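FIELD: query
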Amino acid sequence: MPNSSDEFTIRIRLLGLFFLLLFFILIARLFQIQIIDHQEAREKIDNKLTRTEYFMSGRGRILTRDGQVLAHDVPSYELVCKLSDLSFGEGLGILEELDFFINYKSKRYSEVKDRRPSPEELSHKIKTLNVRLERERLLISISRQLGVDLKELCRALKQAMDNVVKKWALLKTPQRLKLFLSPEMAKKLLATPQLFPGFSCVESSIREYPKGTLASHLVGYLGRLKEENYNVLRIRGYYPPLSSPLNFKPIVLRELEKDKISWARNFLVGASGVEWIRNDDLRGKLHKRTYRRDLQRYNHVEVEEGIDVTLTIDGALQQLAEEELSNALHKLYNKGFSNSNGVIVIFNLNDGDVLVNASTPSYDPNLITPPIQVTDPVDYMSGIMMNKAIQGAYSFGSIYKIISSTAILEENIVDPEQSYACTGMHARTKVGCSARAGHYNLKDALKVSCNPYFCEMAIRLGPHKLYNWSRKFMLGESLTKDFPSERKGLIPNPIYKRNIGQGMWYPGDTGQMSIGQGYQLGTPLQAAWIAGFIAREKAIAKPRFWTDAPITEVSLGIKGATREAIRAGMYKVVNEPGGTAYGSRSTSITYGGKSGSAQVGGKNGHAWFVGFAPYSNPQIAFSVLLEHSFTKTYGGGGSLAAPVAKKLIEAWAKRYAHSLH
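FIELD: result
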């Protein structure tokens, strides 16, 4: 039988083995944590100490060719409120106070007005009045010191309270109020936070259009990224960016959880114009940054900004065009033409640069671009968002006679010097003439815009050849790939008329088509293109709207005699007595043009003037359109649209004098 000392020794040994086993287990566990699971443990600690944020860098600028900024990002300071820090007392009774500020028919007013309180009620009201006054004093003080409209502040706070009531936000969650402070007020708020308990501000950027309505149809505006569009944009690869800084991996949006795409819910994308077409270049890049709570700093991120886009528009000429267009429309308005609007297009024949794209009515992108959104785009009047230079479809009127002249000369229907006896009305089609009866060759027919001359020659030519020559002038197709929304226009033929249920094609249809009063429709850009295509023998460039677009040259390929005959007729229109635009001749630059007056059923007609300049060495082509401005009383394109064109041509010649030689 073992003695007590042996039993004690055994117990000591067992206890030692037990502690030795615990020691080895502890060593093994430490080895696992420090060596085997080191990376996993480190990641867990980093995740607890790190907050991840996603942000978009700034959008690129939109510039004119002469360096004017049409769109850029500017710093903004949005007011933020943490409701739990407001000294408004307990509960959400502040909603009633806010309603008192906003609505004079509020409950508080009716209580005071409808009955006199009892002494007990009056005593209770006096006790609570001090709290109410303190609340109101705070709101008024914040409004005055930060330069924020009191009613707007109250509405924003009421909305924040509603968000808490509806459990869309927590009292302790800072909420953006969509109220913006000036840099001075933001600096004051951040420097003296004790004066504004519960309020702060966050710095971000907003899109600003410093020139307002200038070229607004080209520039466009921004809109919020909608939920229904988010997946489409993601699938197309527009978001995330193509590249990312080296200190973090590229972000794949499909791997982000829904609570991590809040950047997208308030993110702005191009909604129209260049902002839309070039959104993929202009947009900022999606970046990720981390905040270390232990170090109290963000990691360094190389921010990649959006790319600037330079338009071909000349800012000074565009400004002048819009002013002259406004002046012309104002004169028409005073004469009773309340529905008149207009379009001006000027483009360079050498590189296709569109120097002027003016369209009315215009709009200010600042008023419809969030977050400072005064009105919704759908509330704007019909057509105000349309860039009529490329989206408007109009009857050409007599400017189409340039194409008719080309067709009849190239198909040898008539010699350019051969005279035609005009009696004032074409006998077969009953189309009248605004010129005096007399004998006209092609040049003089263009000069006075003799309708019977072109009706007769077009009937001899036939509708199919006239259609084919319209196609050679590239009507019925897009002139530029810059804007997918560009309208192609319409060029009719006998098949088209039959397909729309209008029956057979008659000689009268050919006559009407030859003078631009048929079914054909086109844009002001196409009208300028017609004039430019005939202006010179060498190829001209197709229009483009930004300087990094490729230059594409095309040539009409007609006989030199044909071109010179038509050019001579367009010279006579402006520079010889009796020409339809003789009143708009210039002493500083010689140019050629063609006026037009397109009749519109049931309304006043359109006044056109197209041409090229200078006459001896054409560098630009242009078109001016005044909608619903033509009547026999006030004249047509020669007396209405040509004076506007003259001022712009002279301004261009002065500005680009080096290109005239």
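FIELD: remark
The chain is about 40% helix and 15% strand.
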